TrEMBL record:
Claim: Repeat is one of the keywords in the record: no
Enzyme class: oxidoreductase
Keyword terms, alphabetized: Oxidoreductase
Protein name per UniProt: dTDP-4-dehydrorhamnose reductase
Native species: Halomonas cerina
Enzyme Commission code: 1.1.1.133
Entry GO MF terms: dTDP-4-dehydrorhamnose reductase activity
KW Oxidoreductase (keyword) present: yes
Pfam families: RmlD_sub_bind
Residue ranges of every copy of the RmlD-like substrate binding domain listed in the record: 63-279
Residue spans crossing the bilayer: none
């Protein structure tokens, strides 16, 4: 299977590259940005075009949201003309006001924000104009490296001794970029084998949690690992924010359909978080070893 991935520096693109390198059945072509060069689809002839999500579109610059929407629409037109499936990953923040119950795939977001509404219109076009598509709605992605790599940003902030502020009344499902990459490749492999299960899917981690709790657990696990290694670092603190005083805003995706159709089980975020922190510690060791071996 051959995939064309846009936005090479995105944390999901990097995760897809790592996953493809572990397999013998997947070949990737990765483009630096979101602009699809004329004739590229015809030259590469991928089995699908994959577009990583615009993370945190609620707080993104309006111009960035517009640019992302326009780039996806251009990809839609190119895929339609070349008859190539399109995979568009989307942030759960499109469900701006949240829903009390877990959100099913058939529930189309109806945000009030103009930028989010622009992204919803892109999804409407994809569903209308391109039958062979996957719209994959994701919880907040976390990874160690790449753009939008939430976890990497949090670690850097805490290690620098700076405070992290996080909402205690926003309930969501943190989602490992590595787990998403593994699931996407598995889903597309099944499509290659004739599944023909196109449409919208929710893909997020298990155990809904507040942003504040996620960050606090991450800080505790990081401190424990550093102490176990004999390191004493004054990590920054975590401050709880409360913006929804009446009741918590719940943005929890129901991922039952991706299990029923593709057999994809969601990975617990606590396990993925621990694995990534272990990886960060190993990389920290490697960095120290390299620094010590440099000539003085």
């Amino acid at each position: 299977m051959k995939l064309l991935i846009l936005d090479a520096g995105h944390c999901l693109s990097l995760a897809l590259a790592r996953e493809a390198n572990r397999r013998a059945d997947t070949e990737l072509t990765i483009e630096p940005g979101l602009v699809l060069e004329a004739g590229l689809l015809e030259a590469v002839q991928p089995d699908a075009l994959v577009i990583p999500p615009l993370s945190r579109p609620i707080s993104a610059d309006p111009a960035a949201v517009t640019a992302h929407a326009e780039a996806v629409e251009a990809c839609l037109v190119a895929c339609r003309e070349a008859d190539i499936p399109l995979v568009w990953c989307v942030s759960d923040q499109l469900y701006e006001d949240g829903v009390d119950a877990p959100i099913d795939e058939h529930v189309i977001p109806e945000p009030r924000d103009d930028g989010l509404r622009r992204l919803v219109r892109v999804g409407d076009r994809i569903r209308t104009e391109l039958p062979r598509h996957l719209i994959v709605r994701l919880g907040p992605l976390f990874a160690l490296e790449g753009s939008h790599a939430w976890l990497g940003e949090l670690i850097d902030t805490l290690v620098a001794g700076r405070e992290v502020r996080a909402e205690s009344d926003v309930i969501l499902c943190p989602t490992s970029a590595d787990a998403v990459a593994m699931a996407l490749i598995g889903m597309l492999q099944q499509q290659q084998c004739g599944a023909e299960a196109w449409g919208s899917y929710h893909l997020a981690g298990t155990e809904p949690v507040s942003t504040y709790t996620f960050v606090s657990v991450m800080r505790t696990q990081l401190a424990t690992r550093l102490e176990g290694r004999g390191e004493t670092l004054a990590l920054g603190g975590v401050k709880a924010l409360s913006h929804h005083h009446d009741q918590p805003l719940r943005r929890v995706l129901n991922c039952r359909r991706v299990l029923e159709v593709f057999g994809v089980h969601q990975k617990p975020w606590r396990l993925e978080l621990g694995r990534m922190l272990d990886t960060w510690c190993l990389a920290r060791d490697d960095g120290k070893t390299a620094e010590e071996s440099m000539p003085r």
